């Protein structure tokens, strides 16, 4: 089936995404009439995500599509915008948002950030088998299958993705040998459910004060960090010259270049090193070390933290974090572009499993946040560091304040490290639930 969207040229599609972002910022800047009331309910970041999703849903643009020739040959096509945004703009944004970070103040955020992260992990580990048991009671065939076609094997890849990331997801596919012809269905569930959950989190950001009040959360450490960063920004604030802007670009993309260079060496090196480990379990636990994306994000963040101890941090006064925010919004739009809202109805059974699974994850986070009086920031970032990884955790964190993007990265990188072993534990429980 030919699924070609109206616009396939990335230059045109990028223009549409930028027009969408421009529309959001233009309407958000209006202080009277309908729009202020609208944005009190729906945050601008959510709209930046949702408008491209609508454009994809109505067939104007698409992240992937296929064409059919006269002879019946099917050709797969894809947009490069998400790849460019996640591989080039995301690390550049992290560098610019981290330049002025006060690392000591970040660590002073305390233990609640880690508790919420691990709560999110536990929610995924336990949520999988619970989802299987609940859906099996209504539709046993949805969670059935034998051998390589067993649904629990496919769901193991979701566990890997939702605790770690793409490398962990691939590791789970190899460990449990799920039928690769059916694997696309699991990727589909991953995209739909994870993106719906991210959309809900973005909506929650707009209501964070009300949520924090209900949670009885102590937000003093977060507000202290934000105030500290704002004070520093005001202190070094200046009208940026062309030289300032060019140096900011050099710092950002020079770091990205070096991070890519290093990842091109480190990923294959560790991939070969891990491949030589005799124990299959141990080997798969460290699969993430062979991921170029992992090394690229990690190295860019390490360099940015190192630069925060130098005079380079003063470029925050010339708007470094604002340029980073631009890159983040482009990434948000490219992520939204991957979401076709109509696909939700294509495989309701698997989607139902994913929704129940994510609902348990969310409920557990809310309960623990209420018990320990954790701010909504820790709940949102702790969840996305698991479910979204390094691509979306910084987005959610920076929505609270640009200086907080680093918190999202640090937790997401930690998720890579524990992703496979936690996903294996989840899969063992899912197998027991499926055969019970």
Can you give a write-up of this model?
Helix content is 72%, strand content 2%. The chain is an all-alpha fold and 436 residues long. The relative contact order is 0.20. A hairpin with a 5-residue loop joins strand 1 (64-68) and strand 2. The protein has helices spanning 10-28, 34-41, 44-57, 81-98, 103-107, 112-138, 151-163, 166-176, 183-206, 208-215, 220-236, 242-275, 280-285, 292-307, 320-336, 348-372, 376-387, 393-400, 405-435; strands at residues 64-68, 74-78. The protein contains 19 helices and two strands. The chain has a two-stranded antiparallel sheet with strand order 1-2. The radius of gyration is 22 Å and the shape is globular.
By secondary-structure content and strand pairing, the structural class works out as: mainly alpha
Low-confidence stretches: none
Gap between N and C termini: 39 Å
Q: Note the run of SSEs as H and E.
A: HHHEEHHHHHHHHHHHHHHHH
Strand order of the largest sheet: 1-2
Radius of gyration from CA coordinates: 22 Å
Strand content: under 5%
Query: Based on DSSP secondary structure assignment, what is the total number of beta strands?
Result: 2
Task: Give me the number of helical elements.
Answer: 19
Compute the average pLDDT.
87
Largest β sheet strand count, sense and barrel closure: 2 strands, antiparallel
Helix content: over 70%
What is the approximate shape?
Answer: globular
């Amino acid at each position: 089936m030919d699924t070609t969207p109206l616009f396939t040229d990335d230059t045109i599609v990028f223009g549409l995404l930028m027009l969408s972002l421009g529309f959001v910022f233009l309407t958000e800047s209006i202080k009277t009439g309908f729009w202020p009331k609208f944005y009190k309910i729906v945050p601008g970041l959510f709209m930046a995500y949702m408008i491209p999703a609508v454009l994809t849903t109505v067939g104007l643009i698409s992240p992937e599509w296929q064409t059919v020739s006269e002879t019946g040959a099917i050709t797969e096509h894809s947009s490069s915008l998400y790849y460019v945004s996640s591989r080039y703009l995301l690390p550049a944004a992290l560098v610019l948002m981290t330049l002025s970070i006060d690392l000591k103040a970040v660590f002073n955020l305390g233990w609640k950030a880690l508790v919420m992260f691990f709560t999110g992990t536990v929610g995924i580990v336990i949520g999988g088998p619970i989802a299987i048991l609940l859906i099996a009671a209504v539709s046993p065939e949805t969670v059935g299958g034998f051998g390589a076609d067993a649904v629990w094997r496919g769901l193991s890849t979701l566990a890997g993705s939702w605790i770690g990331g793409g490398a962990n997801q691939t590791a789970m596919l190899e460990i449990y040998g799920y039928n690769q012809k059916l694997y696309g269905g699991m990727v589909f569930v991953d995209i739909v459910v994870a993106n719906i959950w991210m959309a809900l989190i973005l909506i929650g950001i707009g209501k964070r004060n009300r949520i924090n009040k209900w949670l009885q959360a102590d937000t003093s450490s977060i507000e202290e960090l934000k105030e500290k960063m704002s004070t520093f920004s005001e202190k070094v604030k200046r009208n940026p010259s062309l030289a300032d802007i060019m140096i900011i670009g050099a710092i950002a993309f020079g770091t990205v270049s070096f991070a890519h260079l290093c990842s091109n060496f480190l990923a294959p090196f560790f991939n070969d090193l891990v491949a030589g480990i005799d124990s299959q379990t141990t080997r798969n636990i460290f699969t993430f070390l062979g991921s170029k994306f992992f090394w690229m994000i990690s190295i860019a963040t390490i360099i940015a933290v190192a630069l925060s101890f130098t005079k380079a941090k003063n470029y925050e006064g010339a708007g470094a974090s604002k340029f980073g925010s631009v890159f983040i919004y482009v990434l948000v739009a490219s992520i939204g572009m991957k979401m076709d809202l109509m696909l939700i109805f294509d495989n309701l059974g698997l989607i139902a499993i994913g929704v129940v699974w994510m609902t348990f994850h969310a409920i557990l986070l809310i309960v623990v946040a209420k018990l320990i009086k954790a701010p909504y920031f820790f709940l949102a970032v702790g969840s996305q560091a698991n479910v979204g990884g390094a691509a979306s955790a910084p987005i959610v964190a920076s929505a609270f304040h640009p200086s907080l993007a680093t918190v999202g990265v640090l937790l997401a990188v930690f998720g890579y490290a524990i992703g496979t072993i936690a996903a294996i534990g989840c899969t063992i429980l899912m197998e027991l639930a499926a055969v019970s």
